[in-house]
Amino acid sequence: xxxxxxxxxxxxxxxxxxxxxxxxxxxxxxxxxxxxxxxxxxxxxxxxxxxxxxxxxxxxxxxxxxxxxxxxxxxxxxxxxxxxxxxxxxxxxxxxxxxxxxxxxxxxxxxxxxxxxxxxxxxxxxxxxxxxxxxxxxxxxxxxxxxxxxxxxxxxxxxxxxxxxxxxxxxxxxxxxxxxxxxxxxxxxxxxxxxxxxxxxxxxxxxxxxxxxxxxxxxxxxxxxxxxxxxxxxxxxxxxxxxxxxxxxxxxxxxxxxxxxxxxxxxxxxxxxxxxxxxxxxxxxxxxxxxxxxxxxxxxxxxxxxxxxxxxxxxxxxxxxxxxxxxxxxxxxxxxxxxxxxxxxxxxxxxxxx
Length: 354
Description:
The chain folds into three domains: about 1-170, Glutaredoxin, CATH 3.40.30; about 185-245, no CATH class; about 260-354, Serine Threonine Protein Phosphatase 5, Tetratricopeptide repeat. It is an alpha/beta fold. Helix content is about 55%, strand content about 10%.
């Protein structure tokens, strides 16, 4: 969870070890056809149709910054779906569990998705253009040419808006990127000192400073809430503010997190997970169960990770039969995840000796 919080500071990219030496695909070149891919969502694209705009998002399930950018990519698709803009997510570099990943997100990933075959598409696009990190987006214009290459959170909105309005030129985009870079530098100047305080406070278990710094961080930028909220709850609990901590969690459940299963799951796991900083006395197990059950409800009791967390909440709340039952389903849905199985063995042993 701390890693997720830190990931929001900058538009980070995960780097592949296979960075190209020779650039053979540049802005202005014709975009290669998407031939060596398996389409797992949406209609197959066999050619880039004239008059259409395509956003190619190169990503992987194991890439945190890629996953974090998916909601933004999805928003762009919904905003411009009537303007001949087509998003295509292309899973590359050994991305695993793609179909399950995409299916779970449903309308939260409401665009075409394809999976690279034998790295051929990654070679044709990423390696050929000298791109060594994901997420990377490539914007294909109405003539089927690569118009822009960049990070989905740094300039894509502007590039698409200009292209939809037929106002896109390389000169204009360079000006816009200079402006965006300047704004990002100013953002980082504000956020980095606060984030360093958060990191230092959490590592040093200075809960008063952690509460203060996390509150300031969320006030600076609401996008940090999902990552900060679990630690804000923990800080309050560690400081003995039991009622305030419980109210904070309840307010999130009924407002910004009410439809966000992943945020609720993160909150629950931070409370009851094996590495939770909370002692048994500080751990509000009933609250954790309530949060976990809500997350499971939102995912139709069909998400292995969410059920694994809920089972842990049942276990620490001494609802051992429910812990075993729920963990069995988590193991089944995960295809026999060994870590999940280990926890199931732990819960079954506890249930058998109770």
